[in-house]
């Protein structure tokens, strides 16, 4: 720090500014660079006012508290990191995309950033804070918001930010390059390596058992090897690895202690993520793992050698753990129990529910002539996301949409809701099941036949529950509704123009399903 003075009202107060060699400035440089990349090329759903609200709130609170305690003005480097970290991970549902100066939700960032910072003054042990402030603030915010309003208010940043383009590659270079340099300088590289290796092993075990989660950036559930790849290479996990779990104030100071701490965080994170089926809960589970281990860090300090002692050596500590046959057996049993715990914990998220086949429709399957479908306009964002979704492939998806709509009519005619999971999912499945129940109760049946004049395809990215990316087919044309009486006789037929957006997603990993029908293009 560089000491100067600031005169206010005739009174001189010490002014403490950061030194260019302060590691906190280097961390800030990395995080701010990621923020800039998010605004310029990665299309983060966060605005500059939201980011500034979190950082400036932490700035003001920290300056006020340190002035009250020391009667000096101290540059709040750590506080600004807390605000920046909160702004990097927090998202307010409904924030408009690609509007960098929109002020929507800025107060949420200010409140969560401020409370995160205050946690280090409220929760202390032996004169220092117990938890990484941004970490515990985010976990508390996500959990409390979920309990009160579900996932419709705030959500965490996605594990995967964008296709592997120049912006993502640049982000990786900045995060990993900066992270390695900073953790090496702080002698925390062993902690980071232990975390990543143990996390890779734990998530690998989950993946091998068929673990799946839904995510905003995928049309299908992310399962098996894809789940492993996404987690261990996620830029968001790299941020967590290099800049959150490596907070020097909340980690052990000895070499052995830091490695044990990193491995423990990885194990608990894996256990917390294991039962989660969507990205929201998986990300909160990852963040909560650090909170849990920080809470029991005094126990880790008792278990590991004293810092800088003769035993504070990884090779010596390893030999001590498995130095005898008995200790080696205990260590092996511990590893097996942890592995078994991960497998058992992952039961709720295991496997993909494959929709029933269409054999029930083979007696009189609906036939849709592909030539009746109009040319399809595909937005560039769809092609940029997946270049295979153009031309014949998109025509195939459009044909499945038309077929699914006709198969819904078959389910209504047969009063058979078991057909619907083959073509519908989510809100649309619930809606159609209710319509089938009404038809079975003798309340009449309304069949809907869509004749498309135009189809325009874009990406639909949901907020909150993070239950999957969808293709939005904005269609216009003629809707013919046939009303049948209780005996199945045609009562009336009416044709009207329609304009709807049909959300399509491979929600169960197999066929493209209708997940919602929204009004308007």
What features would you highlight for this structure?
single chain, 521 residues, alpha+beta, five-stranded mixed sheet, three-stranded mixed sheet
What secondary-structure arrangement, pairings included, does this model have?
Layout: E1 2-8, E2 11-17, H1 23-40, H2 48-70, E3 73-74, H3 77-89, E4 90-92, H4 106-122, E5 124-125, E6 128-129, H5 133-149, E7 154-156, H6 166-185, H7 189-208, E8 212-213, E9 222-223, H8 224-233, H9 235-243, H10 255-273, H11 279-295, H12 297-303, H13 314-321, H14 325-345, E10 376-378, H15 380-385, H16 392-414, H17 426-440, E11 445-460, E12 470-484, E13 490-505, E14 513-519
Parallel strand pairs: 2-3, 10-11
Antiparallel strand pairs: 1-2, 4-7, 5-6, 8-9, 11-12, 12-13, 13-14
Helix pairs in contact: 1-3, 1-6, 2-3, 2-4, 3-4, 3-5, 4-5, 5-11, 6-9, 7-8, 7-10, 10-11, 10-14, 16-17
